[in-house]
Amino acid sequence: MLQEKITLNTDKWIDNYADYLYNYAVSRVNNSDLAKDLVQDTFFAGLKSAKNFQGKSTERTWLVSILKRKVIDYYRKINSKKGQAEVRMNFYNDGENEGDWIEERVPQSWDNQSERDIENEELKEQIERCIDNLPEKYAMVFKMKTIQGFETEEICKELEITPSNLWVIVHRARTQLRKCMEDNWFNN
C-alpha cells in the first residue's frame, strides 16, 4: 500500500497561525516579546522538521505541540541554575548602585505572591462578570473560540453560523469586554 505524501502549506503559516500561536504563547509566558520569539522559534523548528509531519493532526495542532515544547524548554532553562544566572532583574538605574542583580539573589521578603494571587483572583472574577454581561450568543462564541480553543469549523457547525459571522461576533465580544474591563477594573 502506497502512502500518500503529506505536504505542509508553510507559505501560509504566518497568515493562518501566527495570531493563534502568539496568543497561546503570551498566555503562558506573560511576555509579549518572548511570546513572539517563541512563535518564531516554533515556525523555524516546524520548517526544519517538516519532513517528520505525518498528517495525523492538523498543521495548527502540530505547530501548537512544537510551541508547547518551546514553552516547556523556556521554563526548564530559567529554572536551571545556569538559566537563573542568565535571567537578571534591574534594580538600580543610576548612582553608585547601578547594575543588575541576579534574580535568585533578590531578597525573598520582597515576594508579594499572596498579593498577586489575590489580585489575579479579583481580575479573574471581573473578567467572568464581564463575560456574563455579554449577549448570550457573544458569550458562547467567545468562550468556545478564545477560552476553550475550539476550531472555527467546529463552532460554525455547532452554532450554524458562517466563519465571517463568527469573527464578527468574536470582535464585538472583545470590544464589549474591553469596555467592561476599562469601566470596572482599569479605571477603579
Automatic annotation (TrEMBL):
Domain RNA polymerase sigma-70 region per the UniProt entry, residue ranges: 14-77
InterPro entries: RNA_pol_sigma-70-like (IPR039425), RNA_pol_sigma-70_dom (IPR014284), RNA_pol_sigma70_r2 (IPR007627), RNA_pol_sigma70_r4_t2 (IPR013249), RNA_pol_sigma_r2 (IPR013325), RNA_pol_sigma_r3/r4-like (IPR013324), WH-like_DNA-bd_sf (IPR036388)
Keyword Transcription (UniProt): yes
One MF annotation (Gene Ontology) recorded for this entry: sigma factor activity
Limits of the RNA polymerase sigma factor 70 region 4 type domain: 125-177
BP GO annotations: DNA-templated transcription initiation
SUPFAM superfamilies per record: Sigma2 domain of RNA polymerase sigma factors, Sigma3 and sigma4 domains of RNA polymerase sigma factors
Pfam families for this protein: Sigma70_r2 (PF04542), Sigma70_r4_2 (PF08281)
Keywords in alphabetical order: DNA-binding, Sigma factor, Transcription, Transcription regulation
Alphabetized PANTHER family for the sequence: RNA POLYMERASE ECF-TYPE SIGMA FACTO, RNA POLYMERASE SIGMA FACTOR HI_1459-RELATED
Family, per entry: Belongs to the sigma-70 factor family. ECF subfamily.
Name of the protein described by the UniProt record: Sigma-70 family RNA polymerase sigma factor
Native source species: Polaribacter marinus
